């Protein structure tokens, strides 16, 4: 088994990134967007409409 030194600053970086992700996701409902960024589905194209 290899002895690899742990990079402790990476733990802090990961924790800060996860916290920032929580803050951003919590702020999304309060954001005032000019377009709808939460729209997941595009309008169906005609070719796909005929296939389905």
Automatic annotation (TrEMBL):
The chain crosses the membrane at residues 12-35. It comes from marine metagenome. This is Acyltransferase 3 domain-containing protein. The lineage of its organism: unclassified sequences, metagenomes, ecological metagenomes. Keywords: Membrane, Transmembrane, Transmembrane helix.
């Amino acid at each position: 088994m290899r002895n690899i030194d742990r990079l402790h600053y990476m733990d802090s970086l990961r924790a800060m990134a996860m916290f920032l992700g929580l803050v951003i996701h919590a702020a999304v409902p309060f954001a005032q967007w000019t377009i709808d960024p939460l729209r997941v589905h595009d309008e169906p194209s005609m070719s796909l409409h005929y296939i389905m």
